[in-house]
Automatic annotation (TrEMBL):
Repeat keyword on record: no
Domain Acetyl-coenzyme A synthetase N-terminal: 36-90
Identification of the protein by name: Acetyl-coenzyme A synthetase
Entries under InterPro entries matching the protein: Ac_CoA_lig (IPR011904), ACAS_N (IPR032387), AMP-bd_C (IPR025110), AMP-bd_C_sf (IPR045851), AMP-binding_CS (IPR020845), AMP-dep_synth/lig_dom (IPR000873), ANL_N_sf (IPR042099)
Cofactor(s) demanded: Mg(2+)
Binding annotation for ATP: G397, E398, P399, D421, T422, W423, W424, Q425, T426, D508, R523, R534
Molecular-function GO term, any one: acetate-CoA ligase activity
Alphabetic keyword roster: Acetylation, ATP-binding, Ligase, Magnesium, Metal-binding, Nucleotide-binding
UniProt xrefs under SUPFAM superfamilies: Acetyl-CoA synthetase-like
NCBIfam families on file: Ac_CoA_lig_AcsA, PRK00174.1
Species whose genome carries this gene: Coraliomargarita algicola
Family per record: Belongs to the ATP-dependent AMP-binding enzyme family.
Binding site for CoA: R200, R201, G202, K203, T321, N345, S531
AMP-dependent synthetase/ligase domain span: 97-485
Length: 654
């Protein structure tokens, strides 16, 4: 991002505003704007008092001596002196309160097999597997890699680690053998938990084989535990003598009772590598007590969780969204949730809506990339289904284009459900900017306002406050990362150096509007300076997808002799529509009208697909490399490498 202090062109043309329905407001935890403002003020004036009060709702073996200890900043400590356990707060606490028979997880496999698991059963499974791990010699502090499909054993393995104080490092089960190797070596994991396979679009992915290849040269791995998923699809799963064991064998002969380890506040809970949208993934460290309180409270308020809700987050547990908003935050709140193994378009494009209808899902949390896919597949898949159980919708992962937001609001939310557009990161542990569903009037494409205790600022490189610039976070918060594994210097350099340690630097650009709402403009690298006009590429993309023939688009900045930077647009057209100069002209006219002639792209390229991470985010850095004719940077986190080859060829053709 450029360093001048001029404020950014106000390129947004989005003025629609949607207050929450009065029905929703009436019974919401945070009811009405004034209630949000009052509690927010309190959380900023007296953060320690605010967080201590939240922590009181959970179980502690021993309470804290101090709420926040900033004496070694940026290595902050939260709830220092306390002892607690996340698995206890996710499971035992509900059983003690007499809610053990409540369903924790309605699990649905891709082929249609299903399991309902109560909190009591979950507790039992977690205790058994925790004992099995102990029997294999796993100790507190050991790093355990988990490479599993979205089956209950994934949540069980995560909670079993937390129960005995082992550090889990979940690797999304779509990653390659090389990605497994990098992560296993970086964190020196001693055990890998995997499955023979997992279903994806009707096919069986042979996960154990990928693990074998990935860890072939990793001497640190002493144990591989394999869950049998493929009964109907027997997989040729070679077990290595002395290293590999079947999960079902290990849990067959162990004790049901496994008391939760009393963990210190700053004991490492998990490692999770970022999605790699901007480069090589970073091993983010999260610790126990602060993350516990933050994941609990953000879940409760942002999803307005009530005891009779059926919640469904479509993310994989392999991403931070699944850690916080499938496992820890949601289960600490003791609600019932749906967990689904497979693809949204198997056996057909209506699968998600079938699941919502079947389980009467009331809260639905998904990603913009999924919403854009649903739009592309057409409304018929949705209108045939009964989605009347829904009361709240959410999105996460990327800026959501206003067009996609409106579709979500109308087609899925029936104009009745508030949408929480939640901005946060692997590093932040939980939601940072988000509407409060019963309080905040939402605007399409806007993450709106800070969560309690979060004090955002928008700054220049020099730390001057501006309307549009670089997003910064002023106060520490309990869910914050505590480091990059094995590299404290990189942790300081990446997140704390930009403004002399006074602010956390998330790496995203943002703009504040006349209501004080914050709009995320994309990564700082994606804010482009064209002849002195600073443009968030996300805003151009949102204009393009308003065109009826456009499914998706990505815009990047490239060096330009006269303008400093110019823009190149990659546009994906809806199946069967024309991609020609006429469409290019129409797109340029739209840019002229909604942003201005200065934002006209130098080139508009049509492409059948865009390069994405395995979590579905558009990788603009690769498009930048293509547009500059450079060698491509780190591509290991790319979901489908062939997309890039096609684009490169097309780009060269002109
Ligand atoms: P890496 O850090 O390795 O490049 P990543 O940033 O994609 O990968 P994540 O932690 O999964 O890894 O993603 C966080 C980023 O996703 C945020 O910094 C932001 O750019 C984007 N993001 C998440 N939610 C939103 C949202 N609601 N609106 C806009 N952007 C979002
Ligand atoms: Mg990031």
């Amino acid at each position: 991002m450029t360093t001048d202090n001029s404020s950014m062109e106000s390129v947004s043309h989005e003025h629609r505003k949607f207050p929450p329905a009065s029905e929703f407001v009436k019974s919401a935890h945070i009811s009405g704007e004034a209630a949000y403002k009052a509690l927010y003020e309190k959380s900023i004036q007296d953060p320690e008092g605010f967080w201590a009060e939240a922590a009181e709702e959970l179980h502690w073996f021993k309470k804290w001596d101090s709420v926040l200890d900033a004496s070694e900043a940026p290595f902050f400590k939260w709830f220092d002196g306390s002892r607690t356990n996340l698995s206890y707060n996710c499971l035992d606490r509900h059983i003690e309160a007499g809610r053990g028979d409540k369903i924790a997880i309605h699990w649905e496999g891709e082929p249609g097999d299903a399991r309902d698991i109560s909190y009591k059963q979950m507790h039992l499974e977690v205790c058994r597997f925790a004992n099995a791990m102990k029997a294999r010699g796993v100790k507190k502090g050991d790093r355990i890699a988990i490479y599993l499909p979205m089956i209950p054993e994934l949540a069980i393995a995560v909670l079993a680690c937390a129960r005995i104080g082992a550090v889990h490092s979940v690797i999304f089960a779509g990653f390659s053998a090389d990605s497994i190797r990098d992560r296993v070596l970086d964190s020196e994991t001693c055990m890998v938990i995997t499955a023979d396979g997992g279903y994806r679009r009707g096919k069986m992915l042979e996960l154990k084989q990928i693990v074998d290849e990935g860890i072939a040269s990793c001497e640190c791995v002493k144990d591989v535990v394999v869950v049998k998923r493929g009964d109907a699809h027997p997989v040729d799963c070679k077990m290595q003598e002395g290293r590999d064991s079947w999960y079902h064998d290990l849990v067959a002969n162990v004790d049901d009772d496994c008391p939760a380890e009393e963990m210190e506040a700053e004991d490492l809970l998990f490692l999770l590598y970022t999605s790699g949208t901007t480069g090589k993934p970073k091993g983010i460290m999260h610790t126990t007590a602060g993350y516990q309180v933050y994941s609990y409270l953000t879940s409760k308020y942002v999803f307005d969780l009530k005891q009779d809700d059926v919640y469904w987050c479509t993310a994989d547990v392999g991403w931070i969204t699944g850690h916080t908003y499938i496992v820890y935050g949601i289960m600490q709140n003791g609600v019932t949730q749906v967990m689904y193994e497979g693809a949204p378009n198997h056996p057909d494009e209506g699968r998600f809506w079938d699941i919502i209808e079947k389980y009467k899902v009331s809260i639905f949390y998904t990603a913009p990339t999924a919403i854009r896919a649903f739009m592309k597949w057409g409304d018929d898949w949705v209108t045939r289904k009964d989605l009347s159980s829904l009361r709240l919708l959410g999105t996460v992962g990327e800026p959501i284009n206003p067009e996609a937001w409106m579709w979500y609001h109308k087609m899925i939310g029936a104009e009745r459900c508030p949408i929480v557009d939640t901005w946060w990161q692997t590093e932040t542990g939980g939601h940072m900017l988000t509407p409060m569903p019963g309080a905040t009037a939402t605007k399409p494409g806007c993450a709106t306002l800070p969560f309690f205790g979060i004090e955002p600022a928008i700054l220049t490189d020099d730390g001057e406050a501006v309307e549009a610039g670089i997003l910064a976070i002023k106060k520490p918060w309990p869910g914050m990362l505590r480091g990059i594994y094995g590299d404290p210097q990189r942790f300081k350099d990446t997140y704390w150096c930009k403004w002399g340690g006074k602010y956390y630097f998330p790496g995203d650009g943002a703009r504040r509007d006349e209501d004080g709402y914050i709009w995320i403009l994309g990564r700082v690298d994606d804010v482009v300076n064209v002849s002195g006009h600073r443009i968030g590429t996300a805003e151009l993309e949102s204009v393009f997808v308003e065109h009826k023939d456009v499914a998706e688009s990505a815009v990047v900045g490239v060096p330009h002799e006269i303008k400093g930077q110019g823009l190149v647009a990659f546009v994906t057209v809806i199946d069967g529509r024309e991609q020609d100069d006429q469409l290019r002209k129409e797109l340029v006219t739209m840019i002229d009208k909604s942003i201005g002639k200065f934002a006209r792209p130098e080139r508009i390229l049509f492409s059948s697909d865009l390069p994405k991470t395995r979590s579905g985010k558009i990788m603009r850095r690769i498009l930048r490399d293509i547009a500059e004719g450079k060698e491509l940077g780190n591509v290991t986190t790319l979901a489908d490498p062939t997309v890039v080859q096609d684009l490169q060829q097309q780009y060269l053709k002109g």
